[in-house]
Write a structure and sequence with these properties.
Bound molecules: S-adenosyl-L-homocysteine
CATH architecture: 3-Layer(aba) Sandwich
CATH superfamily: Vaccinia Virus protein VP39
CATH topology: Rossmann fold
Helix content: 25-40%
Oligomer: single chain
Largest sheet: 7 strands, mixed
Number of strands: 7
Shape: globular
Strand content: 25-35%
Distance between the termini: 40 Å
Strand order of the largest sheet: 3-2-1-4-5-7-6
Structural class: alpha/beta
């Protein structure tokens, strides 16, 4: 499969039926998801790996990971209605996911790779923190999407370091969000996001 095809396929999946503002339910755009997944695959972090998608929403990242050869993918999501959409999307695409209806803080499996598009924290400040904390706890490699703003970049540097992780911005891309989330009149709001690879720092006592 080519990156372009993956992007197209993912962008055709069903979106949130009634997006919940407080959960920051905007789907990961197909092109953004494909970009993140493609890079993760090139780093060797998808094929044959156990993957978790934290805050899986409609399942875009989880489904993409499975299509690129992940052995097992956990789709962790607090909202049952979103999980229902993810189930339908997976079925339509012909992939099998392990659906877990829970708060990300409750997820307790060790995985090779975490993929996530956490809430950006535009509705509830620091809403991305429980996601990062959990990702750092269960995996040694994490791919995540965050706003491309100096304060967010600085926060990620400090917070990762505190958890013994090294953050790297792999690319910076536009991300389209339906305007309802920003109370704008425009149909779509285009924001700029950083695609991160965060890797556990080598142990100091070697
Ligand atoms: N990649 C997803 C978009 C994720 S949006 C997609 O393309 O559909 C962020 C998701 O995190 C939302 O689905 C939201 O319901 C979920 N979420 C927010 N807080 C959560 C929490 N504490 N535990 C689990 N999921 C959560």
């Amino acid at each position: 499969m080519k990156k372009k095809h993956l992007a197209m396929l993912l962008s055709r999946l069903q979106g949130f039926e009634t997006p919940k503002l407080e959960l920051e339910q905007y789907r990961t755009p197909g092109n953004v998801a494909a970009e993140l997944l493609w890079m993760a695959a090139q780093w060797g972090d998808i094929e044959g790996k156990i993957v978790a998608d934290l805050g899986a929403g409609t399942g875009v990242l989880a489904i993409g990971a499975k299509l690129l050869g992940a052995e097992r993918v956990y789709a962790v999501e607090i909202d049952e209605a979103a999980l229902e959409v993810a189930r339908r999307n997976a079925e339509r695409t012909g992939v099998e996911l392990e659906f877990l209806h829970m708060d990300v803080s409750e997820f307790s499996k060790k995985v090779d790779t975490v993929l996530m598009n956490p809430p950006f924290g535009s509705q509830i400040k620091h809403a991305d923190r429980p996601f990062l904390v959990k990702a750092f706890e269960v995996a040694e490699v994490v791919y995540s999407i965050h706003l491309a703003k100096p304060e967010v970049r600085n926060f990620l540097k400090t917070f990762s370091k505190e958890h013994n992780f090294i953050p790297k911005v792999l690319s910076t891309v536009y991300f389209e969000i339906p305007a309802q989330f920003f109370f704008h009149r425009k149909r779509l709001e285009r924001i700029t996001t950083d695609l991160y690879r965060l890797e556990k720092a080598p142990s100091k006592d070697i």
